[in-house]
Design goal:
Layout (H helix, E strand, L loop, with lengths): L7 H11 L2 H8 L6 H12 E3 L14 E3 L2 E3 L3 E3 L12 H12 L4 E2 L7 H7 L5 E4 L5 H13 L4 E5 L9 H6 L9 H8 L2 H9 L21 H8 L6 H10 L3 E7 L2 H9 L4 E4 L13 H12 L4 E5 L5 H9 L4 E4 L1 H10 L1 H21 L13 E3 L1
Parallel strand pairs: 4-11, 5-6, 6-7, 7-8, 8-9, 9-10, 10-11
Antiparallel strand pairs: 1-12, 2-3
Helix pairs in contact: 1-15, 4-5, 4-16, 12-13, 14-16, 15-16
Length: 380
């Protein structure tokens, strides 16, 4: 009899067994010594919830809005690279699961399935995440394609102009498309479910970049490719340029300092994502949940503050909301579900977080997710 899946970590363990090591560890691990990766988790564990009693919590509402979009709960799927190599057609499956759950899905620039492939597979528009390339004409083209796909928000990721070294990517020889060596060939051969899903998928390389950016064949690692293509000269002036090209909702991801949050508000973005890239960039940076309250205090109601960084449960999400976030984003939790069970696994991850959030709201005396305040938590 199969072991029941009771939480996101159960999905992680299943994904670890089903996804080739190079791709699983791409999603699972962090940069350098992984201090920040671990701190994202430990910081959540240090925050305690206030148990309240004798309050009528029979009727609870999780519905809210994120950047003007009605959602069934304060959660979105974060942009994640190489999603279609966790499971074939991964971006399409994630977008479908998010649409069915009534939450936003954000597609990465470095997705395996393209903007057009994902848009053709869903009924409602999704968000698109932009990395600015050295070829600014291509960045302009990506924004145009997102507009043509009727994407409901554009998310600019600002914290990956230079990549922090991820030791496991180098050790695993991570490349896209995968280069077959004896080691990874044996690994893939032992995971026929994964191999079959990828073979059946509409794309196995960077879907948004195919035929537009060359030079991938001669590179040995993903990090080398990013270093050759991503633009480290991007500044706040470029945000004004992007705003001219993009008339819709604009979200800036990678904010970890109140000063940058204030500058984002000054430049008229609609929302920011407090994020340390899941501990995959600047190692030694604090946990996102620790810097969140100061950033919320700095910007007030000038823009929406979203949270990204280690949400694995509804309790984590509740702590982020109580610390001032409008909503949380899940990256690893999404990829664990996808790698474990495809679309059904993504749905499983979302619904477990939804139930955990609802139960935790009840036990802390909360009935409306929009009214959650810092009184819900103890901070040691």
């Amino acid at each position: 009899m199969a072991t029941p899946i009771t939480n996101v970590l159960d999905l992680r363990e299943l994904a670890r067994r089903r996804v080739p090591r190079a791709f699983f560890e791409y999603a699972d691990r962090g940069a350098y010594d992984e201090v920040t990766l671990r701190e994202n988790r430990h910081a959540f564990e240090r925050i305690q919830l206030r148990q309240r009693v004798m309050i009528d919590v029979d009727q609870r509402s999780l519905a809210t809005e994120i950047v003007g979009q009605p959602v069934s709960m304060p959660l979105a799927i974060a942009p994640t690279g190489l999603t279609g190599l966790q499971h074939g057609s991964g971006e399409i499956l994630g977008a479908r699961a998010a649409e069915a759950a009534g939450i936003p899905f954000c597609l990465s620039t470095v997705s395996i399935c393209s903007i057009e492939q994902v848009r053709a597979a869903v009924d409602k528009p999704f968000w698109f995440q932009l990395y600015v390339m050295r070829d600014r004409g291509f960045a302009r083209e990506l924004i145009g394609r997102a507009k043509a796909a009727e994407c409901s928000a554009l998310m600019l990721t600002a914290d990956l102009t230079v990549q922090g070294q991820r030791h496991r990517e180098i050790k695993n020889g991570l490349s896209v498309p995968p280069k077959l060596t004896l080691h990874n060939l044996l690994d893939i051969a032992s995971k026929p479910r994964w191999a079959w899903s990828v073979l059946r998928a509409p794309s196995r390389s960077f879907g948004n970049l195919q035929g537009r950016i060359g030079g991938t064949d001669s590179l040995t690692t993903l990090a080398q490719w990013i270093a050759s293509q991503f633009d480290p000269t991007i500044t706040w002036k470029d945000l004004d340029w992007i705003r001219e090209l993009w008339p819709g909702k604009l979200v800036l991801k990678g904010i970890m300092d109140p000063r940058d949050a204030r500058l984002a508000a000054d430049h008229g973005v609609d929302a920011i994502v407090v994020s340390n890239h899941g501990g995959r960039q600047l190692d030694g940076a604090p946990a996102t949940i620790d810097v969140l309250p100061a950033i919320v205090q700095e910007v007030g109601n000038r823009l929406e503050v979203l949270f990204d960084g280690g949400i694995l449960s509804g309790q984590d999400l509740l702590k982020a909301l109580a610390s001032g976030a409008r909503a949380g984003l899940i990256g690893k939790a999404f990829l664990y579900g996808l790698g474990a069970m495809g679309e059904a696994g993504v749905t499983k991850a979302i619904e477990m977080i939804r139930r955990e959030l609802s139960v935790s709201m009840a036990l802390t005396g909360q009935t409306d997710v929009r009214a959650i305040s810092p009184e819900v938590i103890w901070r040691r």
